[in-house]
Every structure is written in C-alpha cells, then in structure tokens.
From TrEMBL:
Gene3D superfamilies: MFS general substrate transporter like domains (1.20.1250.20)
Name of the featured protein: MFS transporter
UniProt key word Glycoprotein: no
Membrane topology category: Multi-pass membrane protein
Main localization of the protein described in the UniProt heading: membrane
SUPFAM superfamilies named among the record's database cross-references: MFS general substrate transporter (SSF103473)
Keywords of the record: Cell membrane, Membrane, Transmembrane, Transmembrane helix, Transport
Amino acid sequence: MFVVTVPVSLAAFAMARRVLAQDAPGVRRTVDWAGTATVTGAVIALVHGAVDAVDHAWTSPRVGGLFAVSSVLMATFIAIERRAADPLVPVELFRSRMLRTGTAVALLGGASRVPTFVLVALYFQQVLAVSPERAGFAMVPTSLTGFAVSLTVLPRVLGVIGPLRSMVLGLVVLAAGHLWLANVQSGSAYVVAVLPGLLLVTTGVALSFTPTTMVLASAVPARHTGLASGLAGASMQVGGALGTAAFVVIGISSGRRVEGALDAAGFSAAFTAAAVVALLTAALGATLVWPRP
C-alpha cells in the first residue's frame, strides 16, 4: 500500500518544474528553529495524550502529564513567536476573527471528518464481520463519490453560495451521514443501510474540506496564503487524531468491548458523537456567514 505511493510522488516531483512557477526573487527568509521545535513538540504531546486516553483514563498521570507538556510547549511557542525576527506564525495575524474562527473550524472539522473512515473500516470488520479485502472494496464508492463531487458539484456550489456557506453546508451533510451510520440496524444490507450514510459523509467532506482552506486563505494578506494553507492542513490533521481517539473512547465507554473490538452500540455512540461535533462546527462556521454587527 505504501509502495504504490512512491511512483506517484516521484512523478509529481518530476512534473513540479514544468507546472509550478518559479519563486520570485525577494528577501531571504530565516528559519524559526525554536518555534518549529516547540510547536512540533506541543502537537506530538497533545496527540499522544489523546491516543493514550484510549487505554488510560483521561485523568491518569500519563495522559494529564502529556497534556500539561503540550500546554507548556504551546505557551513557549507563542512567547517565541512574539519575539522572533522572522516568526514561523506571526501572532498578530490572529487578531483577525476570520482566522481565529476558521482555524477552530478546521480543527473541529478534521475531528469530525477523518475519524469517520477509520470507524467505518472497523465497523465493517468488527460488527459486520467483513474481511479486510471486502471492507476495502466496500469503501471504493466513497472515493469515487468524493472525486466526482469535488470536480463537478463543489465548483458550482462555490460559485453560487461561496466558500463560507459551502463549508457550513458540507458540515451539516456530514452530520447527516454520521447520524445515518449511527442508526444502522444490525444485520442490515450494506447497499441499503451503510452505503447511503457513507455517500452522505463523503459528500459532506468534499463540500467542506477545500472551502475551509479557502476561508483561512481569505483571512490573511496575500503574502501569507501559504501559511494559511499550512494552518488549515495542520489543524485538520491534529483534529483528526484527537477526534479518532475521543470517539473510540466514547465507543468503548458506551458499548461492550470484546477482545479489543467495539460492538454495535459502541459504534452508534461514536458516530453520534461525531455528528454532534460536526453540527457544533457548522454552527461555529455560521457565525462567520452572519457576522456580528
């Protein structure tokens, strides 16, 4: 699976010189090594703390200690960025409400999007007793649907309602898919019970993923669009790790774990929690659609 990606990456590398424009000459930038080290350490500690919460209590010294380390490193990172001559993330950019709220939406949106496909893959194998190979084939329609929606539907939606409303709409559709999957009855057929929920989830992801990055990019000056894109990607990835850990913990707490597997009740609770997060994220994004006076 990982080897397959190598020729694709090499092809992209070879095409880059032909496709991408050359950088315009400008001021030479310095590397913010201290900021890079502290923010990376903060993210690693945060994600490990959340992942360890699956096997340890949230209040355990192990999990609490990792969260404390993450908090200290993040505070150190902010202090470094305030004083750095060429900061990795200029903190003054966060005076923009659009950027602050958009980053939170990216984080929570990642927490509601990424775990879905992990949970579904486990659901196929642990509840429906489907082999890994058949589970992989069962996920193919989601990839095809996401590709089709991104190429055909999303551009039209963006042209009609813009990225902010598209982002909110996508999160609502995503929540609908979560709720569908949360209410699948045991023994139901894949085509009529599981697949519609998957297609809703995929459509919601396609309608909200790219618009979130567009919202963040619009919140900063043009010279910082690369930073905005990086913030969006990093927030979504960290949110995905935190959401996966949190929803698995909810599933374990709500269902019956047998030999490391969740039962149908546990998956239902996990998908319901994901729907709640998606709806709350949509509500947060809606505050940008209808700004305060």
